[in-house]
Here is the input.
Amino acid sequence: MSENPAAAPSTANAARFRAGIGQPPWDLSVGAIAVATLFALPGGYVLWRALTGGALHLLVERRSLEPLWHTVQLAFLVSASTALLGTALAWLTIRTDLPLRRFWRVVAPLPLVYPSFVGAAAFRSGLTPGGILHDLAGHLGLDLQFRLHGLVGSWLVLTLFTYPYVYLPVAARLSALPSSLEENARLLGDRPLQVFRRVVMPQASSSIAAGALLVFLYTVSDFGAVHLMRFETLTQTIYRTRLFDQGRSFALALLLLALALLVVATERTVARRGSRSEVIGDRSPLRIPLGHWKAPAIATCSLVVGLALFAPAVSLADWGLFGWFRQRRGLAELRLDWGDVAGATWSTVWVSMVTAVVAIAVVLPVAYLLARHRSRLGGIVNSVVVAGFAIPGLVVAISLIFWTLHASPFEFLIGTMPVLVFAYVVHFGALAVRTAQVAVSSVPRQMNDAARLLGAGRLRRFFTVDLPIMAPGLAAGGGLVMLSTMKELPATLLVSPIGFRTLVVRIWDTYEALYLAEMAILALVLVAISALLTWFLVVRRSDHLA
Amino acid sequence: MYFPSTHARRLGVHLLLSVSLLAGAAGLTGCGSDDDKSITIYSGRSESLVGPIFEAFTAQTGIAVEARYGSSNDMALTLETEGTKTTADVFLSRSPGPTGYLDDLGMLAGLDDDVLAEVDASNRAGNENWVGFAGRARVLVYNIDEVPEADLPDSIFDLTGPGYEGLVAVPGSNSSFQDWFTVFRLRNGDDVAIGWLEDMVANGSHFYPKNRAIVEAVGRDEVRFGLVNHYYNHQEVAKNGDDQRSANHGFAPGDDGGLMIIATASILDSSDDKEDANRFLAFLLSDGQQRYLTDTVFEYPLAIGVAPADRLPERPADTVGAIDIDDMATEFKRTIEIIEASGVLDQ
Here is the structure.
């Protein structure tokens, strides 16, 4: 059923429906404006510093335009390839009789959890002489001569580590969609690929676009991967000049922000044209038999997950084992205190879960505004929230230190958990907002109306009608926030309470000190923990409710 | 038809429960112990390296150390943003650049005489606002299977010659390289420095983002030579033994290629506990801690009278500290611009 008022079942409903589409209630508007104001803090700081930095004229020079062009190229390439990969994996794991579906659904989102400097380093080292992948290929008679770097290297690494931004929302969307259309298409003789193109694509397109947008924004703000791959993007210049040439650094950050806002606005215009269908009660599981497509499907999943998750993990295990044996031979001891590792693991788990819950709660008003009301306010709020994801974490951290200490009554909060969680939420709220919007629009209005007629208040309707239906979508968005928070480094280093150590802080420390074996073990712990959390909070939840 | 109410109630309860549990956990973790005496250190050196020094200081003096870690540039940027409201007392930096930047902003305090007396005048700031506590030599790392010792160059200017075409790795974006290049440039003038860098580019030098990556690459002969800090090779050898096929080479005494870059310690002017902060600096320069830095981390000790670990090559004659740089931000900005314009980052 579409959002066209004329299709509503009764005239009374249609009138109410139309009323909803128009002016949003005042409290929703106020809530959304408050959220937008908070999310605008980093961008506002960038704007202010860029305007007062006296370096805006540099933006039209070749040395700014070239990194800009590199950034745009890379971001479009990565968005396109992840849209393809993420959608294909989601459809295979949700809608077909692919063997070991549950396994694939747990492991498919996990590559997101590699901090990009770890992933890129593991990938690169694995493929160079002495690296385990290179040596394995050597045993098979292959001589891997290529060195991974530049545009191709960055594209490959970022594609493999960011496709979950598309996979998770699309998988959530597919598991919430009625299967009847696909069933009909099957009955009418369409083959799996045709069903995919003619039925699934149009229904999932808004989720695919939302995911690809996130990938775009992640790519333009990434530093770790492009740095190791030696690809000169805007973020690289921003980092290089961050201390000694701040005028230029903030001017380029403003350019990044402008690019992000442009892309966010474009995506929204396109997404609004797409039709959405609401969830109807029918939830009988549909599994499209893959038939002789089964082998290629398994091969695709294995290749993607193998490269993105297991290849770096194998490199890491190789380093970790090397350190272990070194210790056994009495050469150098592993510098790991297991109590310390446990503490860092616990910190990682609870801070990322708190962040995910807070982020969902904060973006819900925005999602309601976007999904239920067509107003200019919604567009602006959406842009502000989503663009926060394109600002590098370091800039987010510095801006929040500035606002907290010098322009707010909350000076006493500096160096406490609330500021850290706030930094995470402002940086990663974008990951939850579009999936939340799709989730809100998947709640059938009739159900809500019926509850209202039966006398249920707004809060009760929210908890008994909306929330259960939205849960898989919200869980997917929250999962993205959680996995991203687990690997966030600059904000964690700069605004956390002193002494607060997450796993990625430990990983970075051992990496900087050249303790690769220790780094590898910690990174594997991070992957294992995120696998557990993904299973409990994202996969099982959506199973349970679907 | 789907009846959500029981699920919903359970979900709501779950959510509430987990939020309150987690909030409780947050409260517990947030309450740090508020000891009588403590100093706060912002450290650009990693916890694995300096953490043991902090623990030893606390054990000896009873003064607790609260430490924030990050790259030296990020720590300096944070300190600048926090301004006088920072809680930091001490700033440890990998190199004089970020320290000098904060000094130019007027954020550093003069150090006690007994701290200054621990190091040679060439290893501290002219205005006595910071001291060096450990040194790293700029060296040429080379592959020992491919390059006989007799063929090693005396001068960094040799590397632009035909014998080194396509064989040298340069960490163009690395901050130690930028420290070195800034001094190289100020000593020889921009024309000579730019000329050298452009010749390196024309000679097909390779760009690597990190020192460590260069030492690894030289070890497996992916590239034959590299311009790096000395201690990466020592750490690789300590880990890999004879499997590590690379060694350090120091340029001839007095050559511009060999230079010591010093890690620096300073005290924030806004600190309300300068006495304990000075005590920490004195501790950092004490024999025991200087021995730890040279024996375990393989850096050059800077306190007068402490000898470098035996396995380290001879100490370079010049240090970055010996050159007084008037305006750090301007000079480093210029260095970054020259490095970008040379094209070395695209190699």
